[in-house]
Amino acid sequence: MMDLTSRPHMSILRTLQLLIQRGGWDRTGIDDIQRDEASATSSNTLPKIAATPLSTTTLENNEINLSTKRASGFIDPEVERVNNKSVTCMIQKREIGPTFNPGQKCRINNHFLPNRMIPVAKYKSRAFCGSYSSDGKLLVTASQDNLLRIYNTQDGKFHEYKKIFAQNVSWSILDTAFSPDGNYIAYSSWSDALYLCSIYGDSTIQEALPLAPSDLGRFCVFSLVFSCDGKEILGAANDGCLYCYDRECHQPAIKIKGHTDDVNAVAFADNTSQILYSGGDDGLCKVWDRRTLNEANPHPVGVLAGHMDGITFIDPRGDGRYLLTNSKDQSIKLWDVRAFSSKEAEVNTRKAVANQDWDYRWHTHVPKQLYTSTSLLEGDTSIMTYRGHMVVQTLIRCHFSPAATTGQRYIYTGCGHGRIVIYDLLTGNIVRTLEGHEGCVRDVSWHPYHQEIISASWDGVIGCWRYSSQDSCPGTADSEWSDSCDQNWRSPD
């Protein structure tokens, strides 16, 4: 049987990629694989990280456990049992039988997770954002030099297609979002408006989407996302509110006073755009139903409580049921929205947040009780907790890995110590730590159809991580550090 922790030759990867992407077959490929199995040695050593996965009992009893195992090829759907076949056996069966099913493709892909960084660009200022479009054909980055850069990635390379000079930027561009049709990009900053610009048209003509009165003073949108139909943009602001801007009416459609402090993250639960998620510095993730919402006296339909510090990001799975939250308490939590938290749990979260005596923006040394914690707050209804990355200095993002290539088997996140950390959703174990940056990795984006991760770091480097049999990461250029962050900037009087 093939040693899955070994360093296979590149011929294996090429053969498998051909099989998965094109359906072709080359007899020499199987010979290469068999020779490699005979000589491979284990060398998959991860950096030691002070992280102890919590109990997986709740996850094992939840439907996401079985659905993820099926989607990622961990379980053979025909017989509903663990798929113990080696990659070689799968390829031999493929030679005389039908094509690989989606689960089998994911199972093979998951043997070749990205492990080596190729620098895409080096900016003279911090990179804050980097994300693929939904079809993977474009990459947008945003940095502290007030520039959005769009790259064409259709041929597997990164061709700079356009630079867009952002307007009315203070401190930095903080978030970007592609419109569903792929024709526009929206971005936010310390400004009373979002800005919308054309990708293929004249990007010097940018539409301001005002959210707050210009005399309000210090105002910022930390997170934004388009609705499925592209008609609305949802934003999370530092005044404790969620804003939903109607592009057809050219005005805010909804303003929800949802949190007592900064709202750092927002998301639509699914394609209906009726259910909203929000997360803030109060440590709570709130679920809102627009169909029953009273804007004058807003109440969430449910609250997800369990974090001990503020939430920095939310990533929905896209099925309207599961979501991830990243937090300053140095953990990612997986939630099922059918299991809301009690009022007591909400109170416990508020108390835990109030008792924090450190500031993640300035203190890069995380309190030991957070980083090594193996206990849960009373009333925590999360399915699973993942620890091993560091959330410091800025609002670090996390995501589910793509369905098409991994079966959403993994959770990946940036890290305050210049890494990308990839967790196994099913076990909580760290399966990859990707080291190569010299500054905080704020944003990460996995290509929807290829084993390729983009990282945007405060060292100014945009990195592209792909699989390499050498299993090593080249160094990056020097970074320049300063003692500030996106959540602490103050606009001039």
From TrEMBL:
PROSITE patterns: WD_REPEATS_2, WD_REPEATS_REGION
Coiled-coil ranges from the UniProt annotation: none
Residue ranges of the region described as Disordered: 473-493
GO cellular component terms attached to this protein's record: Cul4-RING E3 ubiquitin ligase complex
SMART domains, per the entry: WD40
Pfam families in alphabetical order: PD40, WD40
Cross-referenced Gene3D superfamilies: YVTN repeat-like/Quinoprotein amine dehydrogenase
Protein's GO biological process: proteasome-mediated ubiquitin-dependent protein catabolic process
WD repeats: 256-298, 304-345, 434-469
Keyword flag Iron: no
Keywords: WD repeat
Domain of life: Eukaryota
Bias (Polar residues) ranges: 482-493
Family annotation (PANTHER family): DDB1- AND CUL4-ASSOCIATED FACTOR 11
Protein's name in the database: Similar to Dcaf11: DDB1- and CUL4-associated factor 11 (Rattus norvegicus)
Species the sequence originates in: Cotesia congregata (Parasitoid wasp)
